[in-house]
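User: What would this chain look like folded?
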Amino acid sequence: MPGQLSAAWSAASVSEFAYLTPRGEPLCWPVTPYWYPERGVLGIATGLAYPNKAYYTRRHPQVAAMVGETVLQGDAVVLDDDLQANADRYIREMRRRFMSARIGLNPLSIAFLDFYLPRIWIEVTPARVADQDRFERRATGAVPAGLVAAPAGLVAAPVAEVRALQRWVVQRRSAVVTLAGTDGYPVMARSKVWPGPGGSVMLERAPGTGPAALTLHREGLGGIRLDAVMARGWVASIDGRLQFAARRVVGLFGRQPDSRPPFGSIFPLSQLPRAGEFRGMLTRELSRRGEPLPRLRIPR
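Assistant: Here's the prediction, encoded as structure tokens.
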């Protein structure tokens, strides 16, 4: 990666991370990127209690990430052989990266974050890095096998989800649009958005047409106050105008899209009300693996 871009990725506190389901449907969520310039590798950590990113990435290792207007497409490996090393690495990296984490992740607090700190790491080796305009020209409107394109203008999501998405669109006015590209990698573009007819979302730009994800997020305090929503649906070109129709809308960590943490909440402490739910998922995942909970500590 060129030096200027490498510096931008090293400094970024949030990146959009895109991957494909086994059916070829694109998904995209905001994550903290860890760029290692000495190795030319992008690191992403996901919770052991919610391992879908790792599960889908293992099935389809061609992924993408975006910082600003720059898209990185690359080949991923999932690192989950040593859960203790993964937890230590995550705590070390967070404390090194964010002043707030150096204060918030301490010997007392980590005992309450057992539902969140066990991690799976994903490392991505870039195949290509370019401005989003390049990927727009490379994109296709083809529909992956097993998926059916929506009729133009169809909004299939429940009314409450559509209303929640519309509120995000009005408030944020910018979103990331993700589709599956012709060569197996997700393609991404950052677009202005505004409400469209019938609950749809109008797009200034998109990297193609067909099954798509529309991701909106807000963050603050160096990326630790984070909230997001992702809509899964279709991008269509209708009378020369790009339009997104949602079939499902979900909030961060599977929350209802019309609920969100209090304004002043600090992530991941804002997730403490759901700690029991996450602990249940974590226990099931550890049981499936036949492994104990990693020891949570401040690594040297």
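The first helix runs from residue 3 to 11. If you want, I can go into more detail on any region.
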